[in-house]
Structure formats: structure tokens, C-alpha cells
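Narrative of activities, Objective 1.

The group set out to show that a structural description can be obtained from nothing but a protein's sequence at a throughput compatible with the screening campaign. Below is one input-output pair from the validation batch, recorded exactly as produced.
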Amino acid sequence: MKECWHHNANVRLPILNVRKKIKKIIDETDRMKTIEEEDEDKKLSNSINNCSTSEEKSSSLSEDRSNDKKNENKNLSFFLF
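Output recorded for this entry:
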């Protein structure tokens, strides 16, 4: 920006160069946003996968406990009859 406002007009950047610099800045900013969004998407995806895995484990444990109870009841009924 300082280059655009130099007190000597001959030293100032031509408008074409200014436009190129601004475009580079915008492109770089867009690229960084894309990278950040991809990182956020990965984090979210990992978080969702971790939750799903935890739920599956929890569900599996509940089923195992339920089956254990059923087996205990069967064994108990065997002794009672």
C-alpha cells in the first residue's frame, strides 16, 4: 500500500501491478480459507466417526449384558425345575 502512495509519482506502482498484488492476496486468502475448511471438515468427520464407534461399542456392551442376563436366567431356571 505504501508503494501506491509514494510522494514521487514516478516511483508509485502502476495500477496493473497493484491489481496483480491484490489478486495474489485474495487468491492466497481464499486458499487459506479452503485449507481451514477442509481441516474443520476432517475434524468434524473424525468426531462423528468417534461418536458412532462409541455408540456401537455401547450398544454391543448392552447386548452382551442382556445376553448374559438371559443365560443366567436359563441357568437359574434349570436349577429350579
